[in-house]
Amino acid sequence: EKDGSKDKSYEENRKCAEERVKQIFGDENRKGKLRFYDGQIIFFPVPSIQGTVWITTKGICEYWFGEKATVLQKVDDKTNGDKAYVIKKSNSTIELLNLGWLLLDVEDVSQDNNLNISKKIGGWVSQIVVVSEKLFSHIVNDNLEVRTSVKIDPETGTAAEGALFTYEAIPRGTVFGFEIGEEKLRTTNHNDNEIIEAVAPYFKLLGIGGMGTRGFGRLELCVEKPLKPQPNQNCQGLQNAPGGEGNA
Fold first, then answer.
1. In this structure, are 126 and 55 located in the same domain?
2. Number of domains in the chain
3. What's the whole-model pTM score?
4. Is 165 contained in some domain?
5. What is the per-residue pLDDT across 142-179, written as a single tens digit (0 to 9) for each?
């Protein structure tokens, strides 16, 4: 009877926990309290002769880190894409920067860097370079990783004939930004910030999205702005991919 009582208590606790998860995150039948919006690439890693540099744009930095940063005011909006601006660097001096097939002149404005970047995110990226909006998408597309795979025939356990395929992946170390919205009309007795902190380690271990068994989708979460108990309050979050890749 004691064993049966323990099993019953375990099942009740499990059902209670599952119901709490559904209230906050939702399921296939209902909406949850939290809204997770599409992510945006903030810092994208590119190999160069100076080591790995993370590229971004002035507009992206203004949106995520504030428009009043002195360092962004020194970035020329009218540049035609032939110049890059260093806003964070290692000990080396950068005069010319190669980003794949591009060779750009560099202006160092890192001494005026006052972007509101957390210490954790600063530890992820050692060198940050601002490029033009025109070049950013081209550089990202040209530096995606191309993977080759083959479909396995389930009957023979060998490669299926004519089933070789390739796909693109966002490289490890890419920093994303996304917003989390809280719907105040759906009240719960749970602290949403504590829940986000509790589930954060599982993003890094289990990942999200497809191809998780191949190491894709593993993320490290850094919450920049905690959820507050006001209507229409959003939470800005940043995530890195140090343990795997995100699907492109």
1. yes
2. 2
3. 0.76
4. no
5. 999 888 888 888 888 888 888 888 888 889 899 998 88
